[in-house]
């Protein structure tokens, strides 16, 4: 018999928490500084001794970079706020009810808000005794997938009654993901009134040492590119964007590739970012705006940025299929 003073427990439910990188609260320097301070203090992101890194971060980086980054965010900010947050929220909304009435779909950001710990606790308070953590990174890297899971595990460490946990594995070679990318790229190309000479698949960059330390990220990006190239029946140029600092990074660099294409006779290019689950400042400003400028200044004639899967019908169908496999056995309707 349950004691009369025992806390009430909601009916058992299942939670699915979509997790993305994060965003400042506003496109202005103070908000960007708070965001960058959290992001660049993550030991998974900057793998340097903190006694060495923190003076650099608090000095040169956080006194100069926020204003420049705020300008970039301002160029892509929408009435719904940050594109990344707005699209991830839309993805969660579109998936609500997809796995049965007892499955709650929520979203969180590794940096900024809504915070992962807050949403894990909210799901538990809503009766979710089982939670699937779903970092939306098709290719695994410690600086993305692992740090998102770390933050959730830190919240779990403070709970007396922990929910059962599963984590979404990388899906870089999943046929459903490749098919969704193929359909999205083909639809975007069909909307152009010109034919590109080259297709560039730009992935987020990582320091070269992350590969040496054991991250599978680089090889998974290459495999995604190879599978998608085969599916599309045409060559792809794989590149890596968003270099930061003096360290050696995975290459070739996207900006260098774009600057070099016109000299090779490639004057019409389409670029897309298959490693991003949602459009964000790295795609909408770095690729669509600055990438275009780089290409045109080098002599290019036609440039197109092709959008991410976002909350498109194909993107949501892909997420539903990938997530359903991970909650299979928890709910009958997940197959």
Explain what you see.
It is a single chain. The chain is an alpha/beta fold and 335 residues long. 45% of the residues lie in helices and 16% in strands. It contains 12 helices and 8 strands. The protein has helices spanning 29-39, 50-76, 83-95, 116-125, 142-156, 175-190, 208-212, 217-232, 254-260, 281-284, 286-297, 313-327; strands at residues 13-22, 103-111, 128-135, 164-167, 198-204, 237-241, 268-272, 302-305. A 4-stranded parallel beta sheet has the order 2-1-3-4, with helices on both faces. Helix 1 packs across helix 2 (50-76), helix 6 crosses helix 8 (217-232) and helix 9 runs parallel beside helix 11. It is globular and about 80 Å long.
Keywords:
335 residues, alpha/beta, 4-stranded parallel beta sheet, 12 helices, 8 strands
Overall pLDDT level: 95
What is the CA-based Rg, rounded? Answer: 21 Å
* Biggest sheet: strand arrangement: 2-1-3-4
Percentage of residues in helical conformation: 40-55%
Annotation field: number of helices: 12
| Strand content range | 15-25%
**Helix vs. strand class:** alpha/beta
Oligomer: single chain
Tell me the distance between the termini.
36 Å
Instruction: List the helices and strands in order.
Output: EHHHEHEHEHEHHEHEHHEH
Unreliable residue stretches: none
Number of strands: 8
Major pleated sheet: 4 strands, parallel
Shape: globular
């Amino acid at each position: 018999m349950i004691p009369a003073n025992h806390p009430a427990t909601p009916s058992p439910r299942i939670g699915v928490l979509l997790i993305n990188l994060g965003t400042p609260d506003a496109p202005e320097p103070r908000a960007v500084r708070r965001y960058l301070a959290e992001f660049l203090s993550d030991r998974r992101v900057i793998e340097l001794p903190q006694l060495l890194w923190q003076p650099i971060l608090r000095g040169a980086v956080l006194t100069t970079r926020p204003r420049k980054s705020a300008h970039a965010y301002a160029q892509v900010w929408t009435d719904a706020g940050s594109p990344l947050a707005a699209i991830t929220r839309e993805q969660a909304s579109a998936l609500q009810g997809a796995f049965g009435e007892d499955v709650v779909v929520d979203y969180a950001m590794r940096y900024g808000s809504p915070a992962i710990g807050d949403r894990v606790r909210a799901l538990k308070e809503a009766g979710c005794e089982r939670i699937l953590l779903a970092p939306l990174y098709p290719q695994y890297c410690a600086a993305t997938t692992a740090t998102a899971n770390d933050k959730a595990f830190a919240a779990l460490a403070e709970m007396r009654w922990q929910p059962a946990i599963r984590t979404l594995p990388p899906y870089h070679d999943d046929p459903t993901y490749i098919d969704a990318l193929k359909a999205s790229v083909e639809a975007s190309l069909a909307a152009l009134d010109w034919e590109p000479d080259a297709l560039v698949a730009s992935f987020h960059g990582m320091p070269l040492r992350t590969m040496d330390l054991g991250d599978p990220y680089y090889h998974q990006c290459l495999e995604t590119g190879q599978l998608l190239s085969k599916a599309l029946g045409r060559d792809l140029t794989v590149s890596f964007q968003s270099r930061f600092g003096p360290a050696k990074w995975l290459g070739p660099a996207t900006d260098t590739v774009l600057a070099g294409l016109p000299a090779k006779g490639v004057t019409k290019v389409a670029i897309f970012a298959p490693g991003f689950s949602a459009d964000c400042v790295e795609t909408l400003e770095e690729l669509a705006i600055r990438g275009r400028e780089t290409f045109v200044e080098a002599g290019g004639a036609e440039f197109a940025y092709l959008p991410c899967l976002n909350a498109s019908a194909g993107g949501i169908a892909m997420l539903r299929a990938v997530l359903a496999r991970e909650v299979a056995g928890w709910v009958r309707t997940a197959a």
